[in-house]
Specification:
Layout lengths: L10 E9 L4 E8 L5 E7 L6 E3 L5 E3 L2 H11 L7 H17 L4 E3 H15 L1 H11 L5 H16 L1
Parallel strand pairs: 4-6
Antiparallel strand pairs: 1-2, 2-3, 4-5
Helix pairs in contact: 1-2, 1-4, 2-3, 3-4, 4-5
Length: 153
């Protein structure tokens, strides 16, 4: 690791500890030339996966975009941000563990609805109304009826 002060290419690790819930390692280093200390962070290299949208275009998966959609669905509902962040992390883990490098928005939407249904039914219906693009009140009522039937079981 090159020293940011003098540019010397050699340093020694003085201290090493996990940070950000174990996703990074913080290292304190000391330059072997000027003896000044500096901090570096080590992260695991991951390959980004692509999202295939309905119009067949592709973009890199964005956790923030998914969280924003969940926040809109849960607006004014008793759902904590921590719960929503956990849902996003859970969905991301599921997608990464599938080993597919490309995933459709349909698959992501189904994963979101599956989790929202367990957390908050109103948020689930809000999300479903946008995701499934209900054309009219009748299709909206059909979804509500399906939700009621599942609740009775």
């Amino acid at each position: 690791m090159r020293c940011p002060y003098c540019g010397y290419p050699e340093s020694k690790v003085v201290d090493s500890r996990p940070s950000e819930e174990g996703t990074k390692i913080r290292r304190r280093r000391e330059c072997l030339s000027c003896m000044k200390r500096f901090t570096t962070y080590e992260t695991m290299e991951t390959l980004p996966f692509m999202v295939i949208k309905k119009d067949k275009s592709r973009e890199v998966f964005d956790k923030a975009k998914l969280l924003n959609g969940l926040l809109r669905a849960c607006e004014k509902r008793p759902v904590s941000i921590e719960t929503l962040e956990q849902v996003v992390n859970d969905i991301e883990s599921t997608l990464l563990n599938s080993l597919e490098r490309e995933v459709s928005t349909v698959k992501i939407g189904e994963l979101v609805m599956e989790r929202l249904k367990k957390i908050d039914e109103v948020a689930y219906v809000r999300f479903a109304s946008v995701y499934r693009q209900f054309a009219d009140v009748e299709s909206f009522m059909e979804e509500l009826q399906r939700l009621r039937e599942q609740k009775v079981r």
